[in-house]
Amino acid sequence: MREAEGEARINLYQQASRSLVRRSQMSREARDVKKIAEEYLSNLKSDGEIREIIARLEIPQHIAHLEPTCGVEETGRILYSLVDTSVERVSYGDPSSIMIRPLREVILEKIDVENPWSLASPDEDPHLALIAKYGEDRGAYVRVRSGRSVGPVRTCYITRLTGTVQLVHNVYVVEDKAELQVLSTCTSSRDAVDIYHISLTEVILGEKSKFTMIMYHNWNETTKLWSSLRVRAGPESRVVLVYVTHSPVERAYDQVVVRLSNNASATSSSIIYGRRGTYRTESISILDGREASSIIISRMLSAEKAKIESLSKIIARGEGSRGHIECLGVPLDDSSVITSIPILEAHRTDVQLSHEAAIGRFSEEEITYLTTKGLNEDEAMQLLIRGFVSIDIEEIPPTLRKVVDRIVDELVRRSAL
Amino acid sequence: MSLVVEDLHVESGGREILRGIDLEVKKGEIHIVIGPNGAGKSSLLYTIAGIPRYIVKRGRIILDNEDITSLQPQERVRKGLCLMHQFQPQIKTIKVADLENVLVSKFGTSELAVKAREILEIEKLRNRYLFVNMSGGERKRLELYLTLLTRPRVILLDEPDSGVDVDSLVKISEVINLIIDSSLSCILVTHRGDIVNMLKRVDRVHVMCNGKIVESDGKDMLERVLRSGFRKVCEKLKEKLE
Q1: What is the pTM of this model?
Q2: Does the bond joining A95 to the residue before it have cis omega, within 30 degrees of 0?
Q3: What ipTM is given for this predicted complex?
Q4: A98, A259, A409, B120: least buried by Cβ within 10 Å?
């Protein structure tokens, strides 16, 4: 029954999205966001790329109805997926624990006017302006009720059509003492070329809540990616983020900004195996609250002319706040480039900030040692790579841990090719 | 399994460090190699284990009638020869459990390794990164266990007693006594006599000076040499060379 209701709702939603009438029904807040976006975009007329993106968005997109597969097994019973530019499937969980709906509906029905666009603004960046103008049609709103624990919620973003521009805006709200686990996978078919994925995810965490998210990018090499994850962590909340990309892309930009209140803590990890493209990641933790803490871990492997740049920054403003950055990079050949930029910014005398950054091949001593224990050089290298990318976060729940392990297996397999 | 070293001349870093070593370890025998710093004791074991920076200029290493002089370290391990390192690299990315799993899947398990695991208290180290921030005793206990996981029939122990606490030394010697009981062949390099006194049996003691074995005899010689120091023995070599 609930599934039928869900289908009906999607149909209605899709019809509505094609109608201009819908605009007049939008909330004032949403219209304001659009206005800002339009104004901002109009100032960027000289930017050919932005105009090109907008032009593409006017091309009617074919709606595919095949069962989505994201390269890893489905682990969650609750699923939200986006195929090309159409909402493919929304499964609703137990409504007493979780609400999952297209973001557009939430805005139209004024279910939550406070949180969308509370952590980002369309005038920050043209990509955000595009999302503001078009992305709400293609994003999820997930809200976990107070005291409930939900997960893993699985979100899928799939592109199968050449020239697809996928614009996504997600909002996750985790109420006080609640927990949400999310597995987000992005993939594109081998045949589709010239793909652009642009996404914004806003995460708002209540007091003593917990949020775990695994983001897995597995695009094809014609993909351009721009993604921003913004998190506001309430008092005593816990944030665990793992971001993995291991397929060649044309260009990838990933940004994670976590703002932490009193006694909130975050571990933000990224694993990039870059090949034949340019990759830039920015992970920024802002320790606003008293005793807030953050660890940023970055692991980079580069090959085949890839250029990887990783910026990690911790800004400590709260009394007694603590932060640590660990950036390690291993170039697998001489044609690729890794740049690591750790930044620590202290605004008080009682904060503790540290960083460790190193780039270099695995040492000959390590490889020789392993060969004296019976491993050949390839096996030794694979074991070292596996260890290098197996970020150890004990808090990752077993269901998600399995997925991370599988992703690591795949990464090690590809690095050995 | 027997090990024979014939007229072994070795260079490392452009310097001759072993200058004609002859040695035979028969199946189940335990040999002790002692000598001052820089005598070439560890270099002898590294060469036998096949570490590439030790270049054999002359001579042969024969394992059970097979010349293994040109084999890679991993090929020697597969033939049943394994080295316990004196110094282990700290590998920040590999957990003890990960390497243990790989070695068990590659070599299977043995009763000796299972017993050693318990005696050496490896369970406590399982979730730690390889040799990272470990005490001297922990490092040696772990290294001995990992060496046994390769199911060696000839085992090369490079100073298993250096830099370890008394409790660890007791545990390590207990496991070496199990190795002796299991009829594995063994060469043990040491600076001091303490560990030798804790062993059930010693078949032969060799004194090395300046890249050569200058004297070989039974266990009694060890006490004599340790009492008088290496100087006397090494001077004998000098006189001989002159």
Answers
A1: 0.78
A2: no
A3: 0.94
A4: A409
